[in-house]
Amino acid sequence: MKLLNLDWSMWFYGMWVAFATGASNSVIAGLTLKVMDDTVFNREPGTMLKYVGSLFVIGAVKDFFLYINAHPAPAIVSQDTRASVHVEQLGDGALTKTVKTKVEETVAREPEKP
Asked: How far is CA 8 from CA 11, 75, 91, 93, in A?
């Protein structure tokens, strides 16, 4: 059984970006609450920090799981190796052979969802 070559780095990068995006958007929303009405959202010391902290966690986790839902597994990386042979006859009757090898690495589709 051959194991698949998966693009783990981009998958983890995408999860990190989703987490950071959700967290930063939530912090902006929490700070906007303070600007809109300081008397309601900051009644006692530390209340605003609780609001922003809870929005941070909820936004980060939400975007993280949305990314996992859209990309349940890393993309499959495939390698395509092609070789071309060029044979040429010289004037004295000798043959020369040139071999060129080209390796292409492509990120293919993501695996199907179960």
From this structure: 5, 8, 53, 53
Q: Which H or E run contains 19?
A: helix 8-36
Angle at 41 between CA 36 and CA 47, to 5 degrees: 140
Picking from 78, 79, 98, the residue whose alpha carbon sits closest to that of residue 88 is: 98
- CA 114 to CA 108: how far, in whole Å? 18
pTM of the model: 0.61
Q: What is the pLDDT of residues 22-43, one digit of tens each?
A: 888 888 888 888 788 777 776 7
Q: What is the pLDDT of residue 30?
A: 80
Sketch the domain layout of the chain as residue ranges.
8-70, 77-107
- Measured at the CA of 55, the angle between CA 53 and CA 57, to 5 degrees, comes to 70
